[in-house]
Amino acid sequence: MLLSLKIENIAVIENAELELSEGLNVLTGETGAGKSIVIDSINAVLGEKTSRDIIRTGCDKASVCAEFVNVNPLALAVLDKYGIEYDGGSVTVMRTLYSSGKNTCRVNGWPVSVSQLREFGSLLVNIHGQHDSQALLSPDKHLSFVDLLAENEPLREEYKAEFHTLIKVKKELDGLYDSRDEKTARLDYLEYVINEISKADIRPGESQELNKEKLLIQNSAFVKKNLEKASASLSGDSGISEALEECAELLQKAAEFYPDAVGAASAVKSLALELAEQTGEVRDLSENFSYSPSRLAEIDDRLDEIYRLSMKYGKTEEDILETLENSIKEKETIDSYDSRISELENKLYESSDKVKKLAEKLTLSRKKAAADFEKRVAEELSFLDMPYVKFVVNLMPGSLTSKGAETAEFLISANPGQEPKAISKIASGGELSRIMLAIKNVLSDKDPVDTLIFDEIDAGVSGSAAEKIALKLYSVSKGRQVICVTHLAIIAAQADRHLKIEKKVSGGGTFTEITPLDLEGRALELARINAGSSVTGLQLEGAKEILQKAEESKK
C-alpha cells in the first residue's frame, strides 16, 4: 500500500506531500490543477518512462519519494533477488530526475537501475487510465489474468521449470549432434597420436642420456687409449704403484731406528695400499672398456625418432607424454558421446512427455477459468451500465513456450451483432477503465498487487453508470487501496480519504497545493464539482446529502 508521496519540482508542483490510506482515496480539483501530475509522479517513482520536460521550469532536478507498507511477498522477492534489505514490509522508493537527462533511483537507500525499479514497481501499483491501460492493451499479459483466476501459479511454475529442463536438454543434444561428425574425424586423429606415441615408448630424459652415450662412443678410441696408458703407468716393473710400495718399505726400515720417520712411513704405506686398489680398478676399466660401432647407428635412429615426435607433439619427452595423456582423456570423452547422446535422447523424450502433459493440464484449467472469467466480467460490465458489451477470452493454441501451449487475448463486442475484436482496437479510454475495474473486481481476492489507480475512470459517463462505478470502486477498495482521480461528485462521495488539488498563482509563479479534506471541506468540494465556483447554500446541502447517501450505501 502507498502510504505517502513526496513530490518536488515536478511540473507545477514545487513541493507537495500527501498521505494516503487503505480503501478508496479520491483526488479532485479543477481541470489543469495538477491531478494528472500526481499520477505522473507515481508513474515516475515506479520506474516508468518519463521525460526531463516534467522538471519544473527553472529547476535543475526533480524528485519523487514514495513510502510503501505491507508490501506483498512477490515484490519483496524482487528485493531479495537484488540483495536489497528491508524492514518487515516497509519500503521507501526515491527517484531523482536531472535536467541533463540523468536518473538516480534508490530503494531503501540502495541504488538500483530504472529497469530494476520498474520490475519492483510493477508489483506494487497498477495504474489504469484513459492513456494508461497497458495491461489490457497488451495481449502478452492477458494470459496471466486467466491464470490468476484459475490459481494456476503452482502448476505454471512446475510447467515452466520442466520446460526449461526440456530446452536445456535439447540444446545440449543439438550441440552433440552438430559436433558428432567433427568429433568422429577428431577421434581418428587421436587414435593415430596415441598409437604413435605409445609405440615409441619414450621416457623422460631419454634423449639426454642417449646424447651422452653417443658422445662416449664417438670418443671411445681416445678413452681406450688413455685408460691403457693410465693402467701401464700404475702397474708394471716401472709403474707408480710398485715404486710407491718400495718407498713405503724404505721408510719403514728407516723408522726402526729413526722414530721421526714413523708418520711418513705409515702415510706412504696407506697411499701404497689405496693406489694398489685403484690400480686394479683402472686395469679393469681398461680391460673391460669396449664399444660397438653399430650401437652408434641405433642411437642416431632413436634420437631421430624422438626428434620427429618432438616436432609434432612437444619439445621435450615430458611434453610428448603430456600430449599422450591429454589425447587419451579426449578420446575417452569422445567415446562417451554416443552414451551421452543416448542418455539425453531418453531424457528429452521423458521431459517432452512431462511438458506436454503439464501443458494439457494448464490448457484444461485455463479453458475452464476463461469461461468463468467471461461470465463474471460480463456481469460486472452489465452492472457498470455496459450491458451490451460482450467480453471474450480468446485462447489460441500454439507452439509450446515457457507459458504453455496457448496464448490469450481479450476481445470485446461493444454492440449486439458485432463480432468481438481486440480490446486495443475498439475500446475507448473510459471503456478500458471500466473493463479493468470489472476485471479487478472479479480478481479482487487473487491479485497480489494491492494498490490500484484509476485515472478519470468516469470519463464520458454520468447518471446511473456513474453511480454504479462509484459503488464498484468502493467494492474493489475493500481490503486494498484504490486511488481515483475523478470529476464526479457521486464517485468522490464514496472516498475513505479525499484530497483536493488546487492550482494557485503567487509571486509570478504557478503552484499546486494538495489538501486533505474534512467532512465540511468534502461537502464544499462536492458542491463545487456540481455547481462550479459559485456555491449556494442549497447546493451545499445537496452535497451533504450525497455524502450521507454514500455513507449509507457503504453500510
Written overview of the protein:
It is a single chain. The chain has 555 residues and is an alpha/beta fold. It has 19 helices and 15 strands. It has helices spanning 35-45, 73-81, 114-121, 134-137, 142-150, 153-200, 206-218, 220-234, 240-255, 262-288, 293-313, 317-335, 337-383, 423-426, 429-442, 463-477, 489-492, 519-531, 537-554, and strands at 2-10, 13-19, 23-28, 61-68, 91-98, 103-107, 110-112, 125-129, 390-401, 404-413, 421-422, 451-455, 481-485, 497-506, 509-516. Strands 2-1-4-5-6-7 form a six-stranded antiparallel β-sheet. The protein has a six-stranded mixed β-sheet with strand order 8-12-13-3-14-15, with helices on both faces. Helix 6 (153-200) runs antiparallel to helix 13 (337-383), helix 7 (206-218) runs antiparallel to helix 11 (293-313) and helix 8 packs antiparallel against helix 10. The radius of gyration is 48 Å and the shape is elongated.
What is the oligomer described by this structure? single chain
**Major sheet, described briefly?**
6 strands, antiparallel
Which residues sit in consecutive blocks of at least 5 with pLDDT less than 50?
none
Proportion of residues in β-strands = 15-25%
Radius of gyration: 48 Å
Would you count the extended β strands for me?
15
Give the helix proportion (percent range). Answer: 55-70%
- What is the overall shape? elongated
Average residue-wise pLDDT: 86
In terms of structural class, how would the helical and strand content be classed? alpha/beta
Compact description:
With 555 residues, the protein is of the alpha/beta class. It contains 19 helices and 15 strands.
